[in-house]
Amino acid sequence: MAARAVVVVAAGSGTRLGIGTAKAFVPVAGERMLVRALRTILTLPEPTIVVVVAPADRMDECRALVTEVAGAAGEYTTIVPGGADRHASVQAGLAALPDSVETVLVHDAARCLTPAAQFERVFDAVAAGLTVEADAHAIGVGVVPALPVTDTVKRVTGDVVVETVDRSALVGVQTPQGFPLAALRRAYAVAERAETDDAGVFQAAGGVVRTVPGDADAFKITTRWDLGRAEAVVAERAAGPLDLRVGLGVDVHAFDPAVPCRVGMLDFPGEPGLSGHSDGDAVAHAVCDALLSAGGLGDIGGRFGTADPRFAGASGDVFVRGAVALLQDAGLEPVRVTVQVIGNRPRIGARRDEMQDALAAAVGAPVAVSGTTTDGLGFTGRGEGLTAIATALVRSR
Question: What is 188-212 written as a DSSP string?
């Protein structure tokens, strides 16, 4: 059999949760805490014996549940009844393990979202510390996952603050907590029941306890708020990573003094306009192309071509909103757009906020606009026209 094991403590009553059933059997987003905890353990790459310490009055239910979850790995699992308190329950779980087990992890089923990587970190650290057992003054090395304390900590008497405690040396510990099996059994045999966790029992018996990094998702579900938080984490995991896509759009138009100047959906009276089949708004057209590019939807010429009389003289707003509609049909939505305007005129600095607001209203997402020149180089430097370069970020809806 395997040389390593996990004791899953699932016998707690869950009084503070206030749901009226053993806590490990409370569903989190439709699946019981114990099931979620076991599924994670069963993903570990190395064979691992699993002992579930269950409420004494729910043994048959727990046995059926573990059998269903474990499937082909059922021979590695054992279910034992818990005791009057956590101390007795852990002892019952340890007693059920074969003596061939070298390393045991004790885990609370209420920390059902603990990632598999945390189990592996603890197993590896215990294995690395087994040689310390040769020290006559220690019974071995225990390992606990821990997170730094981030809140300011105060020492109080009643409701009066006495002092601020230096939190730099403080950590919050989680499970699973890992130990050499034989050493933990000896520690529990002589322990005072006042100890609150396995590491405390182990350390009181002379063992050395070290830490490895914990994980924020390994929090303990104790209250209804914790339960809601766990369900939110499960929902976020189910949603998976964001599907983000980036697109690029570039548009160039020559100046035409015979038409009104419209840039970035704003009118610039007294400035030469931009030639084109539509209103020549290079900024809006670049934004349109960037949005279409991000969605893999072609380009402005293919979607809103000059052969279509509907777009003769059309404003840039028409093209941008049209691109957004095409994205929506494809199950996508804009997240953010940035545009750089390259040219000597019109000067956009004084109207940047106004332009950003106008473009954002059409895009339905924030738009950032900046301007620059080419220091007299090229056609924009000679004042022959204007260039706009846009990037768009879109995501699945």
Answer: HHH--TT--SHHHHHHHTT-EEEEE
Gyration radius of the chain over CA positions:
32
The model's pLDDT over 223-278, given as tens digits with 9 standing for 90+, comes to 999 999 999 999 888 877 778 999 999 999 999 888 889 899 899 998 997 887 77
With a CB cutoff of 8 Å and minimum separation 6, the contacts of 70 are: 38, 42, 50, 76, 77
Span 149-176, pLDDT tens digits: 888 999 999 989 999 999 888 999 999 9
What are the distances in angstroms from CA 212 to CA 99, 205, 208? 26, 21, 13
Q: How far apart are alpha carbons 170 and 252 in whole angstroms?
A: 60
Mean pLDDT of the chain: 89
Measured CA to CA in angstroms, residue 350 lies from 95, 105, 113, 262, 353 at distances of: 77, 65, 52, 15, 8
Average pLDDT over residues 212-220: 95
CA within 13 Å, CB half, 218: 22
Buried b (16+ CB within 10 A) or exposed e, 337-358: bbbbbbbbebebeebbeebbeb
Q: Can you name the residues that pair with 262 across neighbouring β-strands?
A: 267
Spatial distance between the Cα atoms of 279 and 232, rounded to a whole number of angstroms: 48
- Prior bond to 47 cis, omega within 30? no
Taking the CA atoms of 269, 273, 279 and 285 in sequence, report the sign of the dihedral they define.
Answer: negative
* The pair of three-digit structure tokens given for residue 144, joined into one six-digit string: 């606990």
- 333-360 pLDDT, tens per residue? 999 999 999 988 898 888 999 999 999 9
